[in-house]
Description:
Layout: H1 2-18, H2 29-37, E1 42-45, H3 53-62, E2 66-70, H4 74-86, E3 91-94, H5 100-111, E4 117-120, H6 122-125, H7 128-136, E5 139-144, H8 166-170, E6 176-180, H9 185-194, E7 201-204, E8 212-218, H10 222-233, E9 238-242, H11 246-258, E10 263-266, H12 272-284, E11 289-292, E12 305-310, H13 317-324, E13 334-340, H14 342-353, H15 359-377, H16 382-389, H17 401-404, E14 408-411, H18 413-426, H19 436-444, H20 449-453, H21 470-482, E15 487-489, E16 494-496, H22 499-506, E17 512-515
Parallel strand pairs: 1-6, 1-7, 2-4, 2-5, 3-4, 5-6, 8-13, 9-11, 9-12, 10-11, 12-13
Antiparallel strand pairs: 14-17, 15-16
Helix pairs in contact: 1-2, 1-3, 2-3, 14-15, 14-21, 18-19, 19-21
The structure holds adenosine-5'-diphosphate and zinc ion.
Residues 381-383, 396-397, 399-400, 402-403 line the site of zinc ion (ZN).
Amino acid sequence: AESAAVQEVLRSREVLSRVFGYDSFRGDQAEIVEHVIAGGDALVLMPTGGGKSLCYQVPALVRPGVGVVVSPLIALMQDQVDALSALGVRAGFLNSTQFPDERRTVEAQFLAGELDLLYLAPERLRLESTAQLLDRGKVALFAIDEAHCVSQWGHDFRPDYLGLSMLHERWPDVPRIALTATATEKTRDEIIERLDLGGARRFVASFDRPNIQYRIEPKNRPERQLLEFIRAEHAGDAGIVYCLSRNSVEKTAAFLNENGIGAVPYHAGLDNRTRAVNQARFLREDGLVVVATIAFGMGIDKPDVRFVAHLDLPKSVEGYYQETGRAGRDGQPSTAWMVYGLNDVVQQRRLIDSSEGDAAHRRQLQLHLDAMLALCETVACRRTQLLAYFGQSGQPCGNCDTCLTPPEAWDGTVAAQKLLSTVLRLKRERGQSFGAGHLVDILLGKKNPKVLQYDHHELTVFGIGTDLRDTEWRGVIRQLLAQGLLAVHGDYGVLTLTEASQEVLFDGRQVRLRREPERVVKPARSAKP
Ligand code: ADP
Ligand code: ZN
């Protein structure tokens, strides 16, 4: 038996170099590959770019039969199959975008043993016909890619993934390897439970990406800030800019082009051809910027992306980590840069309020957002906070913005009281909604038309906030929202008190706030050779 194991190790190295052209496995890859070849189940937690694909591709080539890969990324299947074919690997896929005769061809290849890898959309597995097909052929292993999609309360739930527990019931002897880059403790437990992977060996890679510099700055004129950032630190570099809406994707791409930075848009509203062309240009050309909604980037493999910029707040730390993780896969210094402001909080809360699903679901979205806000508002090292979220501990990195220019924490209790009592007084006005701007005007004692119209210059709080500037007050509001000491409702961003704000107003609860430092951050990279 031992010599069989040795044989398999040798074969996996041979496949690695002959088929994929690599000299050695990385990190846990060798151990994972060995374990799966020997028939063991595995749960692999590895950050984006860590090299998850080889963990199932190599065993699929070494073990007899076809490696069946379940993946939700239907749009990428053709690309994946093409890339494998170029390496001489026999691969096919089955999903709903195919014509029936294409599907029949792939099914015939599978049955004839003419495939090494078969990519399957999860909804195909729910069909008894697919199960019968698999019964009639020989399956080498099941790889469950993006396994976090089984987590009902995660950030990327796919109902079809729940059906994947049948794999183990129906084919108990076929090894399964579940892979994901999302690995909070909770998600991990959910994957193990729902996919019945209690007996699987776990491989947890480090989530630290030491070559990425994390920075989050106050948003005031996002497009200008982006332009300055690129010009100062990443002129001529390839990068990805994420925006929330298709509209802002288009506008930002146009703005960059007008200012001499080559950029293409990418979002779900573009036709397939344009999307494919823009994606191909990004992969092939040097120094192109792609401006995209979050739909862009899953499975994109471009090693020299030098920066990822967020003009809007991601919905979760998982999302932020995955998106920023597309920078610097080649290990060279790269920047994860984001601008963030009061409106991001308002907008995200509004999205949650109007989201489908029950109260529990909204609560979950809220928790995701809260963790993201905590990362934005932290006075500690961003990297430490990010890694702590994924259950990893570490020392301050010395490279992120909060390490380089530590923000000051200050006692914001009095400021919070002033602001909250203003909200309390405005609550009595019926049928009227007053947003953040109006509140700040009252605190600063500005007699503008709306203030005069509602006699707000006669409130006792009028002008009590002249010790802070306009932007500082907006920072206070943003942070109170982030800390749950203030709530926001409806389309107009009406601010209301929460139970916790009562504690600040009446029970002496203290409030710690962060003061934005003047930033003079040195570029992440050394000068170009
Ligand atoms: P993930 O799926 O974890 O995001 P991939 O499997 O796409 O990562 O791999 C990321 C990149 O690293 C790819 O370009 C891949 O070819 C490369 N890679 C993976 N393993 C190795 C290895 N052992 N040696 C060299 N390059 C590797
Ligand atoms: Zn740091």
